[in-house]
Amino acid sequence: MAFPYMESVVCFMILVYIFESYLDLRQHSALKLPTLPKPLVGLISQEKFEKSRAYSLDKSIFHFVHEFVTVLMDSAILFFGILPWFWKKSGEYLVFAGLNADNEILHTLAFLAGVMFWSQITDLPFSLYSTFVIEARHGFNKQTIGMFFKDMLKGIALAVVIGPPIVAAIIIIVQKGGPYLATYLWAFMFVLSIVMMTLYPILIAPLFNKFTPLPDGELRSKIESLASSLKFPLKKLFVVDGSTRSSHSNAYMYGFFKNKRIVLYDTLIQQCKNDEEVVAVIAHELGHWKLNHTMYSFIAVQIITFLQFGGYTLVRNSKDLFLSFGFDTQPVLIGLIIFQHTVIPLQHLVSLGLNIISRSFEFQADAFAKKLGYAASLRAGLVKLQEENLSAMNTDPWYSAYHYSHPPLVERLAAIDLPDKKED
């Protein structure tokens, strides 16, 4: 008797949902606490705390509903054989359109087109509610309905342009890869990730936001001086009009080797009390660069990707695995989808490990900024961003350990306040 792979996957999906719902309930209880954590008393006003609490509770309730509908749909799609049925129907559509359904690339693209249409339709009510009810209710949303659908259509257009060549390349590599398939797949994805990281900020991001050089002035001078003191090869310094879509704020950097760029959200500049707070946030980001966190994270992702492809090569010819999910053929894309479902337990463990490492990196970047003399400004900047973004003030320790890639504010402030260790 063949092993019930599909039933096992569905059972584990439900078990993970139950476990994560338990963590969500713990977090929901923490969010309902009527008082600020003691370390934040006097730093954050009661008014901001109440607003943060209301926003977090609204998002928490929305999350419960969204996750329930998601696990219900995903389980039903697997359990009732919707995937093999849809694969068959996409082949029939190709025949109806006068195309060759035996061409696996065409068949896969037809299947993916249907999947994309389905996901857009099913996710649309949640996206609209999140943006135009929750985000709008709490003063964050700046989008119009027209802008929302324009962005959605741009995203679909990009997927239509970029997706088919990538899918076709993966199918060809799997069909012709032989014993070195995992290496070829990894090499292709490695090159693709480099290309996308290069092209995204230059060609794709400007389709959604406007990037303008940070005007000359004190803030620009301070950032350039800081970058120069750390030998950070800053080539361009941009402000992005994040405020056209949301009041949330951020800052990031990108680029390879000697061509680095820093991007500040206009909301970050508006929300911070003074230039020093903005510079302190940049000092934290430069800490990630100086301490090689970005490189370590990239290497970790490459190792995980290679191991995943290695695992895929071990099961891609398993007839029993495909039959368990209702397929009497073994298409490349379907094999990848099934494999991703079967390794869900490992993916959750890997995600937990990456979050632990990420939180460690955040503490190190804070310490780096502190060492540069920005402790007070960074502290003030973090508090200001927590306030303005209405981030959760009270967090459950189990929930944050499992989900958060960044430590809660209370933990970051405590670490910044620790006295420096005396060097022998």
UniProtKB/TrEMBL annotation:
Catalysed reactions, semicolon-separated: Hydrolyzes the peptide bond -P2-(S-farnesyl or geranylgeranyl)C-P1'-P2'-P3'-COOH where P1' and P2' are amino acids with aliphatic side chains and P3' is any C-terminal residue
Domain CAAX prenyl protease 1 N-terminal: from-to ranges: 27-210
Record GO terms (molecular function): metal ion binding; metalloendopeptidase activity
Record flagged with keyword Transmembrane: yes
Domain of life: Eukaryota
InterPro entries, A to Z: CAXX_Prtase_1, Peptidase_M48, Peptidase_M48_N
Residues at the active site: 285, 366 (proton donor)
UniProt enzyme class: hydrolase
Listed EC numbers: 3.4.24.84
Transmembrane regions listed in the UniProt entry: 6-23, 61-87, 155-175, 181-203, 295-315, 321-339
Single GO BP term: CAAX-box protein processing
Keyword S-adenosyl-L-methionine: no
A Pfam family: Peptidase_M48
GO CC, one annotated term: endoplasmic reticulum membrane
Localization in the cell: Endoplasmic reticulum membrane
Gene3D superfamilies in alphabetical order: Metalloproteases ('zincins'), catalytic domain
Cofactor(s) needed: Zn(2+)
Domain named Peptidase M48: residues: 214-417
Keyword list, A-Z: Endoplasmic reticulum, Hydrolase, Membrane, Metal-binding, Metalloprotease, Protease, Transmembrane, Transmembrane helix, Zinc
Family: Belongs to the peptidase M48A family.
UniProt protein name: CAAX prenyl protease
Organismal lineage: Eukaryota, Viridiplantae, Streptophyta, Embryophyta, Tracheophyta
